[in-house]
Amino acid sequence: MMPRSVLSRCARLRQQVPLESAQSTKHGVHRGMSSVTIPPPACMLRPLEAPFRYLFGPGPSNVPPRVLAAGGRPIIGHMHSEMFGIMNDIKKGIQYAFQTSNNMTLAMSGSGHTAMECALFNIVEPGESVLVAINGIWGERVAEISERMGAKVHTLVKTPGGHFTNAEIEQALAKHKPVLFFLTHGESSAGLVHPVDGVGDICHKYNCLLLVDSVASLGAAPLLMDQQNIDILYTGSQKALNAPPGTAPISFSERACHKMFNRKAKPVSYLLDMTHLSNYWGNDGKPERTYHHTGPVSGFFALRESLAILAETVGAICVYFLLKDLRLPSVTTIAIPEGYNWKELLAYIMKHHRIEFTGGLGPSVGMLLRIGLMGYNCNKANAAMALAALEDALKQCRMSKA
């Protein structure tokens, strides 16, 4: 092995030597000289800098050291047998977190939005009827995606923070006869956790599948996939699950799988096609897994560790099961006091306290502030810190005009 000093000198020489380009001629190969014309950007010659922030918004949340360490473990191949073993662990962890025995359970390589599109792309075909409950931004997104796919989209609409009664849902199901009904369990743009009991039974009565978004609520509010007859459930890694952004657990019931694997046409997305993903995750009963895409190995390491922490700390989660109102435990929404500029409040808190709060999202923009204390961040000390920062901002920014 060459000494480190020799390797360093060789590296410096390579940087100084112009690039060569080989050109074939009738007399042989002539090596012409060329050099890079675009210099290396100055920013890439500096070390990476990322400030520490208290992430007390609606997500992502601060990641515990144990999960960070798991994500920093040496990379292994995404098709190695050891990786498949870790993926199997993840599947079992998701089944526990979702409280489901569904075989078709996996983690998407992407954010919660990826899981949302995966569900829609695989279940809904062009021309089919879809019913979407809209009481914040996520219902709006699902409606738009469904329209882009060519579905016949029908909506139930409430102002941000409003919720739908089972009677309202049943009336709309009877009228529109959709193949899929979408409901957001944790509407982070409004701070609402929506009741789910009975909705699955009503959907099945009308031969409709129930799709539930739990990105902001899973691990913070009670949700029992099998008991509540939810057909497709998905979440994201970066909120109460406390892993870095980039993976998204999802599960499909037998009813959903029957619809999904008996389509007339293939899904519009190859990457999100569950025919391939079910094999990649070992869910299709075939003896071998074949290459589909390169999964986020480090992201899966971190997700597996976060699911392990969830399995170990179920007692702490049960505290939230006692909540009886519709406030989302993971994201608290506060009406913007009259006379304040909400952007100035947020900027002041970030500058002077290194704390991230956020404003509204989608239809709730300009209406409220959102404070999230979930997973690793959910403790009394952080709650006191958040309140103190908000109090300070209200004192210092009180002369601002909205």
Automatic annotation (TrEMBL):
Catalytic activity annotation: L-serine + pyruvate = 3-hydroxypyruvate + L-alanine; glyoxylate + L-alanine = glycine + pyruvate
Is-annotated flag, keyword Ligase? no
User: Which InterPro entries has this protein been placed in?
Assistant: Aminotrans_V_dom, Aminotrans_V_PyrdxlP_BS, PyrdxlP-dep_Trfase, PyrdxlP-dep_Trfase_major, PyrdxlP-dep_Trfase_small, SP_NH2Trfase/AEP_transaminase
Q: Where is the Aminotransferase class V domain?
A: 54-312
Q: Name one GO biological process term.
A: glycine biosynthetic process, by transamination of glyoxylate
Cite the EC number: 2.6.1.44, 2.6.1.51
Q: Does the keyword Transferase apply?
A: yes
The entry marks the following residues as binding substrate, namely: 370
Pfam families found in the cross-reference section = Aminotran_5
Carrying N6-(pyridoxal phosphate)lysine, the residues are: 239
Provide the cofactor list for this protein. Answer: pyridoxal 5'-phosphate
Give UniProt keywords alphabetically: Aminotransferase, Pyridoxal phosphate, Transferase
Q: Which GO terms describe its molecular function?
A: alanine-glyoxylate transaminase activity; L-serine-pyruvate transaminase activity
Q: Name one GO cellular component term.
A: peroxisome
Family note: Belongs to the class-V pyridoxal-phosphate-dependent aminotransferase family.
What do we know about how this protein assembles, alone or with others? Homodimer.
- This chain belongs to the protein called Alanine--glyoxylate aminotransferase
Q: Which organism is it from?
A: Sinocyclocheilus anshuiensis
Q: Which gene encodes it?
A: LOC107693722
